[in-house]
Design brief:
Blueprint: H1 7-13, H2 17-23, H3 27-30, E1 47-49, E2 52-53, E3 59-63, H4 91-103, E4 109-113, H5 122-133, E5 140-145, H6 147-150, H7 157-165, E6 170-175, H8 184-195, E7 199-205, H9 214-227, E8 230-235, H10 250-263, E9 271-275, E10 282-284, E11 296-298, E12 304-306
Parallel strand pairs: 3-4, 4-5, 5-6, 6-7, 7-8, 8-9
Antiparallel strand pairs: 1-2, 2-3, 9-10, 11-12
Helix pairs in contact: 1-2, 4-5, 5-7
The structure holds iron/sulfur cluster (SF4).
Length: 308
């Protein structure tokens, strides 16, 4: 995956190691064999139309672009992002998605992802939202983004207007890793999204050397609630080639999450999950309040997994 940082991220990297570590190619990354499982969630197997993934039956993922404002070195989709040959979605592809949805009324939720959906141009962003929200069976739209962190200027007036015009609820899931990502510009973009009617939640990944300590995550989740973003999920880092050095030991993650659950309000504490490799489902990890084997679990399809 190419190295790319936005001006906004570059200005933060200068003085914040936790941000530099997320975006700069490191010696640890270069030392890894990059030939392993590049698609640990097996998304490619569930592609039902170009750029559309239906893994769960009632909701689909639509990949609008392979591009982001800045590339996170731990990205699960590093096999796709920064692949400039894949470009951005076009109208013909969006129409194909709408056709698929019309033929599959069991799908009620669309999740726009990528890359970062906010990097596509204003016209295309509006076209996607408008076209997909017109499908009668679609009740909920979601957008997964890191733009408020990586380049808040991408949250443009035109895109906010497009969100405002959608009749269904629009949930925007924002990827945060560290409290220093919550800058004035980020807070402004969050306020703008809320004013446009979006419902905001966060997603995070445990990352060694970035947020693998209680104090950092306590501050991050407390601040998110204060600015109107509900902490939703924190994941174990996926075992993607090139990102293995970010993986935190499971017992450390459990200890941190147990302490957070004890001390944060329920609203501020996200669910700690593992996106089962080679399987299906975000499986909640039991915290240290529970006795028993915490290294073995069964995914949504009944497959057994071991994490230690
Ligand atoms: S913003 Fe999301 S899709 Fe883009 S590189 Fe980071 S994790 Fe991957």
């Amino acid at each position: 995956m190419l190295e790319k940082v936005s001006d906004h991220i570059e200005s933060l990297m200068v003085y914040e190691e936790a941000i530099r570590r997320q975006f700069e190619i490191s010696k640890e990354e270069l030392a890894q064999d990059l030939q392993g499982n590049c698609d640990p969630l097996h998304e490619d197997e569930y592609e039902v139309a170009p750029g559309m993934i239906n893994k769960y039956g009632n909701r689909v993922l639509c990949l609008l672009t392979a591009e982001c404002a800045a590339y996170c070195r731990f990205c699960t989709r590093r096999r796709l992002v920064s692949n400039s040959g894949q470009g951005h979605v076009d109208r013909a592809q969006v129409n194909m998605w709408a056709e698929y949805l019309s033929r599959h009324p069991e799908v009620s939720e669309v999740i726009l992802s990528g890359g970062d959906p906010f990097i596509v141009d204003n016209c295309m962003f509006g076209y996607v939202l408008n076209t997909l929200s017109e499908v009668e069976s679609i009740k909920v739209l979601r957008i997964g983004t890191r733009a408020p962190v990586s380049d808040p200027s991408l949250i443009s007036c035109c895109k906010l207007g497009a969100i405002q015009r959608v009749e269904q609820p629009v949930y925007v899931g924002i990827h945060f890793e560290h409290p220093t990502e919550i800058t004035h510009r980020t807070v402004k973009s969050i306020k703008d999204l809320i004013s446009a009617g979006a419902i905001l939640y966060s997603q995070s990944v445990f990352l060694k050397g970035v947020n693998d300590d209680y104090e950092t995550l306590y501050e991050l989740f407390s601040r998110l609630v204060e600015i109107g973003v509900r902490p939703y999920y924190i994941y174990r880092c996926d075992p993607v080639p090139g990102a293995m050095h970010f993986i935190v030991e499971p017992y450390i993650e459990r200890q941190i999450m147990t302490r957070l659950r004890r001390n944060l309000s329920g609203l501020a504490c996200p669910t700690y999950v593992i996106d089962s490799p080679d399987g299906i489902g975000k499986v909640p990890v039991p915290l240290d309040f529970w006795d028993g084997d915490k290294a073995t679990y069964t995914d949504f399809e009944g497959k057994r997994h071991y994490i230690e």
